[in-house]
Amino acid sequence: AKKGNFEIPQGVSSIADRAFMNSTVSKVTLSKDASLDWIGVSAFENSAIISFEVPANVTKINSGTFKNATKLSKIVFNEGLTYISASAFEGCSALTSVQLPATLQTIATGAFKNAGLKSVKTGDGVAQIASEAFAGNKALTDLYIGKNVEKIGDNAFTGCTALVAVNLPASLKNFSALTFDGCTALVKITVDAENK
What is the pLDDT of residues 68-86, one digit of tens each? Predict the structure, then answer.
């Protein structure tokens, strides 16, 4: 069984589906000349991974890639990432902060659902935040929604009970009454004055 530290050797371009699923590997590093550009579905699901830097060549985080990796406390995203799939970081309860790159365009359904997020900064390239993307992040207090977001799905922030204030950008065209359902501390929603 894989455990402890693991180095991805030179010449490896992908991590297969479920490669480290349920493993006790706590750290994965890339060799100096690694050319990783693909991380498979559920690759680190329910693993003991503590931190991970997503290589610049990876454009998509697949479904369930880090789902229920409850020890994951640090994730670094590089510019080049465009899509975070459904449930990619769902249940990552030790993950308290994410800063998403400017190249990111879509955050899919339940991508960060029931994580431990206190701070979220979406890049200004994000156009869509899907349903339940950040639902259940009960400690979330610091939220920056990028200035080019056009759509926020149903229940995207449901149950974010510590969220007090939200600023919505002028670019926003579609969001639901349920977007902030169950955000019991929410007292202020500000919509950019340029929003039509």
Answer: 999 999 999 999 999 999 9
Can you tell me the distance from the alpha carbon of 76 to that of 99, in angstroms, rounded to the nearest whole number? 8
Q: Mind listing the pLDDT tens digit for each residue in 165-186?
A: 999 999 999 888 899 999 999 9
174: tokens are: 């579609």
Give Cα separations from 8 to 36, 158, 179 (angstroms).
Answer: 8, 38, 40
pLDDT at 175: 85
CA-CA distance, 91 to 88, in Å (whole number)?
9
Tokens linked to 59? 């454009």
Amino acid at the residue 16: A
Say which amino acid occupies 159. G
Cβ count near 36 (within 10 Å): 18
DSSP symbol at 9: P
Cite the beta strand spans of 74-173 per DSSP E. 74-76, 83-84, 97-99, 106-107, 119-121, 128-129, 142-144, 151-152, 165-168
Cα 2 from chain centroid? 25
Q: Where in 17-171 does DSSP place strands (E)? A: 24-30, 38-39, 51-53, 60-61, 74-76, 83-84, 97-99, 106-107, 119-121, 128-129, 142-144, 151-152, 165-168
